């Protein structure tokens, strides 16, 4: 087929003659059977899934929602053959999104494994960074998860508008409790899940202006709380991101301005930190901590300004010294050139003097000759009178 359709009788000169049969030597490094399928899950990409025990068609796409109770078993390995595992646990009882004792990636995968099913997930190793037993040096890892039971709860899409706002408030309240328990990553998960109930498109679909205003206020508050958690975790870029999201909904939120200012201060971006703290004071004048930050930052900026001025002064001083040195060197060079020219001039004059006197003598001689021919004896006598003086000149030289 390859010969007839591609090269045929003409071949592909100069390497492949006409009518040639080609043999290929192929080395297979890896292969993947058709049982693997793409796994789609929020915030996760590049994951493949293979069913070991398939779920019923009716429950194939079921998942345990945030806050649902779930019981499952799992094990992990680096090769996919599960001859050697780096972790293996049975009968794990957990709550989706609210369990610090189970690795986050494992709990997320378990929530997408329907009850009664078993699946193998092939994931990028970065998703399991820091997880229990994970070996180093692998780009992919495998988890086998079998879900025993999963509580069925309503998702956001199943709720009416009033229930969405109620769910958002309840999740925020639980997030506050987790924050007080210093479970910061869990608190962040609750706040984010709460805001899923009041997405922009959900807010626009609300029935009344009062509901819309309440939803926006809840959303802004959750963003602000997320920024607060990230501030304690010292993840300052995230603080700025979620603080700005809060301010996009509620510009007069003094706490959000304050937290963004703290993040910029820790990043040593003092100009932006000063701007944020001053904005915070604009909406909360009695914030003594913000006032202290403003005073401290202004002192830092003044010191930096003075340091910069000193740097510029030293630079200009060095530049002036360099210019003075160049000017002195140029003057010295010109003086040397003038002296050299002055030394050469007398020598040239001495070389030209004999030549000038010889020319004068020649001119006088020609004049004498002309007078003798034109005026007779009188002219001859004048020439004779002048001639001795001209003839004595060479002796005086």
Which secondary-structure class do the elements indicate? alpha+beta
Helix count, DSSP H or I runs of 4 or more residues: 10
In spatial order, strands of the major sheet run 1-2-5-6-3-4
* Rg, nearest Å: 48 Å
DSSP helix fraction: 55-70%
What portion of the residues fall into strands of 2 or more residues?
5-15%
The rough form would be described as flat
The low-confidence runs, each spanning 5 or more residues with pLDDT under 50, are: 1-5, 376-397
H/E series: HEEEEHEEHHHHHHHH
Main β-sheet description: 6 strands, antiparallel
* Mean pLDDT level: 84
- Separation, N- and C-terminal Cα atoms: 113 Å
Number of strands: 6
Task: Provide key terms for this protein.
alpha+beta, 397 residues, 6 strands, 13% strand, flat, 6-stranded antiparallel β-sheet, 10 helices
């Amino acid at each position: 087929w390859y010969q007839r359709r591609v090269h045929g009788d003409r071949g592909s000169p100069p390497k492949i003659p006409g009518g040639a049969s080609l043999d290929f030597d192929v080395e297979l490094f890896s292969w993947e059977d058709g049982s693997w399928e793409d796994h789609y899950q929020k915030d996760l990409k590049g994951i493949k899934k293979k069913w070991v025990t398939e779920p019923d068609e009716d429950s194939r796409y079921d998942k345990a929602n945030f806050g649902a109770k779930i019981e499952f078993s799992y094990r992990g390995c680096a090769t996919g053959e599960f001859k050697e595992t780096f972790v293996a646990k049975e009968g794990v009882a957990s709550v989706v999104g609210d369990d610090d004792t189970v690795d986050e990636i494992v709990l997320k995968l378990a929530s997408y494994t329907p009850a009664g099913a078993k699946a193998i997930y092939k994931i990028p190793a970065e998703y399991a960074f820091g997880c229990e037993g994970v070996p180093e040096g692998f780009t992919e890892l495998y988890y086998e998860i079998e879900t025993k039971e999963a509580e069925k709860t309503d998702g956001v899409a199943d709720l009416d508008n009033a229930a969405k706002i109620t769910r958002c408030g309840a999740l925020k309240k639980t997030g506050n409790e987790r924050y007080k328990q210093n479970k910061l990553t869990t608190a962040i998960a609750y706040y984010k899940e709460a805001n899923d109930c009041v997405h922009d498109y959900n807010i626009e679909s609300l029935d009344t202006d009062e509901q819309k205003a309440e939803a926006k206020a809840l959303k802004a508050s959750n963003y602000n709380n997320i920024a607060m958690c990230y501030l304690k975790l010292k993840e300052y870029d995230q603080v700025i991101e979620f603080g700005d999201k809060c301010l996009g909904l509620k510009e007069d939120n003094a706490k959000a301005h304050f937290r963004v200012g703290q993040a910029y201060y820790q990043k040593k971006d003092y100009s932006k930190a000063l701007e944020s703290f001053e904005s915070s004071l604009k909406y909360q004048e009695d914030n003594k901590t913000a006032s202290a930050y403003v005073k401290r930052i202004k002192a830092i900026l003044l010191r930096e300004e003075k340091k910069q001025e000193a740097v510029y002064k030293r630079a200009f001083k060095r530049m002036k010294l360099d210019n003075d040195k160049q000017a002195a060197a140029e003057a010295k060079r010109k003086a040397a050139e003038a002296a050299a020219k002055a030394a050469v001039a007398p020598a040239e004059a001495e070389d030209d003097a004999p030549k000038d006197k010889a020319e004068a003598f020649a001119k006088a001689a020609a004049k004498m000759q002309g007078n003798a021919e034109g005026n007779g004896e009188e002219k001859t006598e004048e020439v004779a009178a002048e001639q001795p003086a001209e003839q004595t000149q060479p002796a005086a030289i």
